[in-house]
Design a protein that fits this description.
Radius of gyration: 35 Å
Distance between the termini: 75 Å
Strand order of the largest sheet: 39-38-37-36-33-40-41-42
Length: 1497
């Protein structure tokens, strides 16, 4: 059996490998045996250290607690025969037979003395007015260890206030004054110490006894707990709280405490929200008046930090500085105030001493704190306690290096290594083994609640790793990181860093300084993992939760560390719901330790020996779709990566000579044995699969016994792909239910299929990959069933990726789904650029129409010629189907000679506006190849789009605004006039666009080399040109375009910014970042999103993150939202004659990241509410706008949140729910409050309360990510519309309520009832890169037909889209947006020629776009017949185009033909028999091509 060793200088929890015994083990066993024979037993002393004391009986045994008895599988106890555990988890060190509590060693001198300590010791500590020596375990320990002694842990239950209530017995109360203390804390590690302290007081012979009750912050969401807390506060003497940083709970706490504050004798509020800390009451003490007021500027510091990304100004202080400055005050103030006269100095000193006691955390410290406050401030015990005799605070050093076996806290790395090298030698740990640095939270060490830390250390050392553990008492963990885990140059002296606090590196729960954290971590340059201890949940609550980690913890301890660059948010410890103790989860710790070591080993291993698995995707499952990824030339990119890896010394054998060869190696099965015609690299027998895959049996319920029907030849499991030496290029299996309509509709997505499991089993156990690279956006792994965040070992993403380091190339514009990959499959994402954009331009009839408009502009005053041209414009516009978008376009029979010139101008203006909208639409050109930056020409369009946006936070005006101002116009007026078809404004706007492009071109051309690429931004030539020519090149360009009056000084900041952006656009960082990651280095973090709105997305190649969810919606986003809402309601009122009463609103994760919450702000604006930042600048409050100020009725909004939005912004979902319910409960006339009107109707209809009836925030169930409508349509599943609509209601009908945050309750009936009142369906478009027909997500979540079918009147709702892709935000009809997409992409020669140039993958892109267009017919009837007709003419009737597609990717062309035939069969497309017959012929040609049959034309 594996054995645990207890030895001098050797960690008692080290577990040597099976069958092996570490050096020194025999000596350790002899020591333990000798101790047992001597009749010694480990007992806890008064300072919570441990000492050995003689005891009987004389025999003891070492017991290993594991399995069901101990979830950690790591603790041990010395047990006497009566079964009492005498050694518990905690900070322990055996030194010559003496165990010393770390808190006893506070100075270097004391540490040196401790190193020479001999013999047995028990430590007396002066507490209160008497000296006490307690050689038994603290009373709080009895409850904690009760389950252990009985053979299993009894904890893991829900939070229980009763377990934190301590009352003196009747005997203990006799003749003594009772003091009642109530405390509320964020985390539970103080529970055991406080319980022990109070029990020690009650057991003593003093004149005071104490009743104490504690609450965890999260508990005060519960009305019953609130009532209990209020009752306790009514007769409390002292109130204590700490780390109250959740705004809504801080407000509740203030509501409870503030009215009772005057009746309290003392109120101690340690670091918390400012409004909480203002409740401090300790005589005349006022924290805001001390030392310049560390509280006074705290809120502003935090606000500055939260805004710094917008304002680009360096904040005055870092994120941890409030707590750190408070700690500095704590250290120095008592010495000063001790000699100052006056009550205020005395009270301030008492507060600081109390805070020191609190931070000390031990039962003795807390006992002293209680006695100090009681003796000084509770009148009933005044004079009964000699406060001067109370012990001074005894605390750990503010920071240092800790080890559970070390005799002391070390304050230098050299001192620690002197001790640790001996420890490692005895433990059999190689001196050259990988070293893992751990960052810990001081409070857990101080309170001895460190079992989870001990478990982590022992697991790493058991695996042969070296460990350095550092901590700090402040919230700037970068300080000990630099001090103890880095060399003298600031680079990592370790191989990986694991932050076990769960907090951001700088700032903790209140704030964050991501800039400082990034600078430090970039210099350290090691993989940085942040793991999370459960705080707001017990183990059982987490285990039973579908959501997983509590939403508040996700925001604080997952989202914020990700911004620093953290990866792999594994849960590693639980909370005992009874004792509050942290308990390590052995399976999670084992996984975390292995993953950290696997990252560390990448630094140690030679490149030639590293094995890398590259995974490509195939969706839908079809040979024509191998290598699916958004905007990416997958095989070309992989070829580039393999070339670079080969240059770096990786062992790559038989590498194809070109991209086509690489593609064929995967797509063609030389043996013809594979059902999918893909190359099968490995055939795994069922016996081998069941032996190697630890969860194979669990898949039987959903898929039956292996091999099943997927990824198999009927006998073996098939792993598709090709091995090239140490590189394996594999095809990830799909979900498995795509081709089965019934499984698609009704399966609960309960598990992956056997083929999927076999694929990842092969990677880990047979190929033995050192790292896995998932290639492109996106695969299926991260969307497999399991918790949303905080995976358990039973969640399938965790099971599948197991312990492999996971790298993931992800599109830079999709941070939301990238975040899902980071959290659910532990991916380190590497962003890649989307294809360069160009103006869509005009073609065919649209081009002819543009020429007619230009002719009219020159001849408009010629009565004969001008009118004749307008007649031609009208006729051509109708031929181009523009009459669908211009409602009042004249008929062709209307003679324009009979109308005035102003009326003709109006007609031409509307046509011109639409043409310019089409022409200037940004069109992604082709596909991006990783490692190939844009050319100079391709960069121009990106910079033009960057230049069109105002950036007030940087004091930069947009280029269109600067140009318009020289004409005496505001750009907003020009946009408005152009939108209304005012010819003059349409023409001016077009001229501004041309001038902007010319000016930006001059900037780019200055730095362009002979090959048409920008290698570096050349400012020297610009300065020379400006000196000799008297102006900048862009100033000259604007003059040539007819705008000579633009001020050079106004242009300067804009073009300096554009220069910086150009350098980032062309930086090639995508492949270098991958190489760094594979070398075990840190990947630079950066935001994902739209590089136009946020150029910080550039350069790509970053470890992409989302944003702080508590930061949205921003003020700027709320301002834009008001514009969109005004235009939306104006458009609807104009079309329908009245305001809508209810709008079905779809919320997306990505667009809210890109726009900083514009969609969120739109919902609030419609309801008539506004976001309100708290005192720290976080947006977690709302308030209703008074009706008089609003000026219109409140609109009801039914929110359909995507699964990704739910994962990222569940706290913002709570915000929306609170706003909507507040509106429903407002005492207002129902004709002015449609939310209340509908909620009252639903309450009566469904026999529920008004508040329940006002539920309007819906999403998928936890772990579910779509309505599956898109999947059904993409796969061509033969499912009718009614089934799809019922599927939508079932899968999307899970309600979230702010009354029970984090819970999603099946409420499809309520969802259906709310939708039945909807008048309008609405979605947002935030980027031209991802529009309605680019992906399936938009129509998957569209409820238009659903609403039409469940409305009692059968009326089809208006379907609208808000397009905020440019500075000129628009609201269009859904069908109008589909037409715009079709004209600018699907039907545009620029689009399809660029796609055809990309070959196999480009043809697939064309086919997918056709399928996604078809999806809008299925869900909303939003596709005009001419779109199908023109697409058929373009791709099928044109022989040249059809043959090019057939040659490049016959599978994709066949899918496209199927789409056309299905559209006709379902009545979406009306066409003639000739077209249908041609389609059938082309289908057969595709079949012949796929089967390898030659056919004659």
């Amino acid at each position: 059996d594996r054995r645990y060793i207890l030895s001098k200088g050797l960690c008692p929890l080290i577990q040597p490998p099976l069958g092996a015994m570490a050096p020194g083990a025999q000596a350790a066993e002899a020591l333990v045996a000798g101790m047992a024979m001597a009749g010694q037993k480990a007992v806890r002393t008064a300072d919570t250290g441990l000492a050995f004391a003689s005891t009987a009986p004389a025999q003891a045994r070492i017991t290993q607690l594991r399995g069901s008895q101990n979830p950690t599988g790591v603790h041990q106890a010395l047990e006497t025969e009566d079964g009492s555990a005498s050694l518990s988890s905690g900070s322990m060190a055996l030194m010559g037979g003496s165990l010393l509590g770390l808190s006893a060693v506070a100075t270097r001198k004391q540490r040196r003395a401790a190193r020479t300590a001999k013999g047995l010791a028990s430590i007396a500590r002066k507490v209160a007015t008497v000296d006490q020596v307690d050689v038994g375990r603290p009373d709080g320990e009895d409850e904690m260890m009760a389950g252990v002694a009985g053979g299993g842990f009894g904890g893991y239950t829900s939070s229980n206030v009763a377990s934190r209530r301590v009352k003196p017995t009747e005997e203990q109360q006799k003749g003594r004054q009772l003091v009642k203390i109530v405390y509320v804390v964020l985390e539970s590690q103080y529970q055991a110490s406080m319980t022990s302290a109070v029990k020690a007081i009650n057991k003593s012979r003093g004149s005071v006894c104490v009743e104490c009750v504690g609450y965890l912050l999260e508990e005060i969401r519960n009305p019953e707990q609130i009532a209990e807390l209020e009752k306790d506060m009514d007769d409390a003497n002292v109130f204590i709280c700490s780390l109250i940083f959740v705004q809504e709970l801080a407000e509740k706490l203030v509501e409870i405490v503030k009215p009772r504050r005057d009746n309290l004798d003392a109120c101690l509020c340690f670091p918390s929200m400012p409004e909480v800390m203002k409740m401090n009451k300790l005589g005349s003490f006022d924290l805001t008046q001390i030392a310049g007021g560390p509280l006074g500027n705290f809120a502003q510091q935090v606000k500055d930090l939260r805004q710094k990304d917008l304002e680009k100004n360096k904040p005055k202080q870092g994120g941890g500085n409030f707590q750190d400055s408070l700690l500095k005050l704590v250290r120095t103030l008592p010495k000063v105030l001790k000699f100052l006269p006056g009550d205020q100095a005395k009270d301030a000193r008492t507060f600081v001493l109390s805070l020191q006691h609190w931070l000390g955390g031990t039962p003795e410290n807390l006992e002293a704190m209680v006695m100090r406050i009681a003796g000084g401030y509770v009148p009933s015990v005044a004079g009964a306690i000699d406060t001067e005799a109370i012990m001074e605070p005894v605390v750990l050093p503010d920071m240092g290096i800790w080890h559970p076996c070390a005799p002391v806290i070390y304050d230098t790395r050299a001192d620690y290594l002197d001790w640790y090298n001996t420890h490692c030698s005895m433990a059999g740990i190689d001196k050259n083994a990988p070293t893992v640095g751990l960052i810990l939270q001081k409070s857990h060490i101080a309170t001895k609640d460190d079992g989870h830390y001990v478990g982590m250390v022992q697991e790493l050392e058991r695996r042969g790793a070296r460990v350095i553990c550092t901590y700090t008492g402040g919230l700037d963990f970068s300080v000990p990181l630099n001090e103890y885990l880095c060399d003298s140059y600031g680079q990592g002296a370790i191989d990986a860093v694991v932050n076990l606090t769960g907090f951001s590196l700088v700032g903790g729960p209140a704030s964050q300084d991501a800039k400082k954290a990034k600078e430090v971590l970039m210099k350290v340059n090691r993989p940085y993992l942040v793991s999370v201890p459960l705080v707001f949940q017990s183990f059982t609550e987490w285990q039973n939760s579908q959501l997983g980690l509590h939403p508040v913890q996700v925001a604080l301890q997952v989202s914020l560390p990700e911004i620093d660059g953290a990866i792999e948010p594994l849960i590693f410890s639980g909370r005992d719901g009874t004792s509050g103790r942290s308990i390590p989860m052995q399976d999670r710790i084992s996984s975390l330790a292995t993953r950290a070591l696997n990252w560390a080993k990448l630094r140690k291993k030679e490149n030639a020996e590293k094995k890398i698995a590259i995974c490509v995707f195939q969706f839908p499952p079809d040979k024509g779709n191998v290598g699916t990824a958004a905007y990416l030339d997958v095989f070309g990119s992989i070829f580039s990566v393999m070339e670079e890896l080969k240059r770096k010394g990786y062992t790559i054998e038989d590498m194809p000579e070109n991209v086509e060869g690489l593609q064929k190696s995967i797509l063609e099965d030389p043996e013809g044995m594979s059902m999918a015609d893909l190359n099968a690299e490995y055939r795994m027998s069922v016996d081998e699969y069941e032996e190697l895959c630890p969860f194979a049996q669990d898949l039987h319920e959903n898929w039956g016994p292996p091999p099943g029907n997927l990824n198999t030849d009927g006998k073996d499991m098939l792993v598709y792909g090709k091995r090239f030496g140490n590189i394996f290029l594999g095809v990830q299996p799909t979900f498995g239910y795509e081709g089965d309509p019934m499984r698609l509709l009704f399966a609960k997505s309960a598990s992956p299929h056997h083929g999927f499991a076999a694929f990842y089993t092969y990677l880990e156990f047979i190929f033995k990959a050192d790292a896995c690279l998932h290639f492109g956006t996106h695969g299926s792994l991260e969307f497999m069933p399991g918790k949303q965040v905080g995976m358990s070992g039973g969640c399938y993403p965790d099971r599948l990726i197991s312990v492999l380091p996971n790298l993931y190339y992800y599109a830079a514009n999709n941070p939301s789904e990238a975040t899902i990959a980071k959290r659910r499959s532990y991916a380190s994402t590497i962003s890649y650029l989307t294809p360069p954009a160009d103006n869509a331009g005009l073609y065919k009839g649209l081009k002819e129409l543009g020429e007619l408009v230009r002719s009219y502009q020159g001849l408009r005053e010629n009565e004969q010629r001008g009118a004749s041209i307008v007649n031609s414009i009208v006729a051509t516009a109708r031929q181009c189907n523009l009459d669908r978008d211009i409602a009042d376009l004249p008929l062709e029979d209307d003679d324009q000679k009979e109308v005035s010139m102003e009326e003709r101008d109006a007609v031409v203006g509307k046509v011109y506006r639409l043409l310019m909208e089409i022409e200037s639409r940004a069109l992604p050109m082709g596909l991006h190849r990783v490692g190939v930056p844009p050319t100079a020409e391709e960069s121009i369009a990106t910079l033009v789009n960057i230049a069109q946006l105002d950036r007030p936070e940087m004091r930069i005006k947009s280029l269109p605004r600067l140009i318009a101002e020289t004409k005496g116009k505001d750009i907003e007026e020009v946009y408005k006039g152009s939108n209304n078809g005012v010819l003059e404004d349409v023409k001016l706007l077009e001229d501004i666009k041309l001038a902007s492009r010319a000016a930006v071109r001059t900037l780019v051309m200055e730095s362009t080399n002979e090959e048409g690429r920008v290698e570096s931004v050349n400012t020297v030539m610009r300065d020379v040109f400006s000196f000799f020519s008297g102006g900048s090149p862009w100033k000259k360009a604007l003059e040539e375009e007819g705008f000579p009056d633009v001020n050079e000084d106004d242009l300067k900041p804009l073009f300096e910014y554009l220069e910086a952006c150009l350098g980032e656009v062309v930086r090639n960082n995508e492949v270098p970042s991958l190489v760094k990651a594979l070398d075990g280095e840190f990947i630079e973090p950066g935001p994902g999103g739209d590089p136009i709105r946020n150029p910080d997305v550039l350069p790509t190649g970053k470890n992409m993150h989302a944003l702080d969810p508590n930061s949205i919606p921003t003020k700027a986003a709320a301002d834009v939202a008001l514009v969109v809402v005004d235009r939306l309601l104006e458009s609807l009122t104009k079309e329908q004659g009245e305001l809508p009463e209810s709008i079905a609103f779809t919320l997306w994760g990505t667009d809210n990241i890109k726009t900083y919450g514009e969609s969120l702000a739109q919902v609030l604006a419609l309801v008539g509410a506004r976001p309100v930042p708290d005192s720290l600048g976080r947006v977690n409050k709302v308030e209703l706008i008074p009706l008089a100020e609003l000026g219109r009725p409140r609109i009801d909004v039914v929110c359909n949140c995507s699964g990704v939005f739910r994962d990222l912004f569940i706290n913002q979902m709570n915000l929306l729910d609170r706003a909507i319910k507040s509106a429903a409960e407002a005492d207002e006339p129902i004709e002015q409050n449609f939310v209340r009107k509908h909620a009252l109707e639903q309450a009566e209809e469904l026999n529920i309360s008004l508040r329940q009836a006002a539920t309007r925030v819906f999403s998928n169930a936890a772990g579910s990510y779509s309505a599956n409508v898109g999947i059904a349509i993409e796969n061509g599943a033969n499912v009718d519309e009614e089934q799809l609509q019922e599927q939508f209601l079932t899968r999307k009908g899970f309600a979230l309520s702010s009354d029970a945050p984090g819970e999603l309750v099946e409420s499809s009936g309520l969802f259906k009832s709310a939708l039945a009142k909807v008048d309008v369906t609405f979605q947002n478009l935030d980027s031209s890169e991802i529009s309605l027909t680019d992906v399936s997500h938009y129509f998957d979540n569209d409820p238009t037909k659903v609403v039409s079918n469940i409305r009692k009147d059968g009326k089809k709702p208006a379907a609208l889209i808000a397009d905020t892709t440019t500075a000129n935000a628009q609201v269009r009809s859904l069908s109008g947006q589909v037409r715009l997409d079709s004209r600018t992409k699907l039907l545009n020669p620029k689009f399809y020629e660029a796609s055809l140039k990309a070959g196999y993958e480009g043809v697939r892109e064309i086919s997918k776009r056709m399928r996604f267009t078809f999806g809008w017919s299925t869900t909303a009837d939003a596709v005009d017949n001419f779109v199908y007709e023109d697409a058929n003419t373009t791709y099928i009737a044109d022989e040249d185009i059809k043959n090019r597609m057939l040659d490049k990717n016959p599978d994709a062309l066949r899918d496209m033909v199927t789409t056309f035939l299905e559209a006709n069969a379902k009545g979406y497309w009306d066409t003639d028999e000739e077209n249908l017959e041609r389609l059938r012929d082309v289908y057969q040609q595709c079949e012949d091509k796929i089967e390898g049959v030659d056919f004659m034309e």
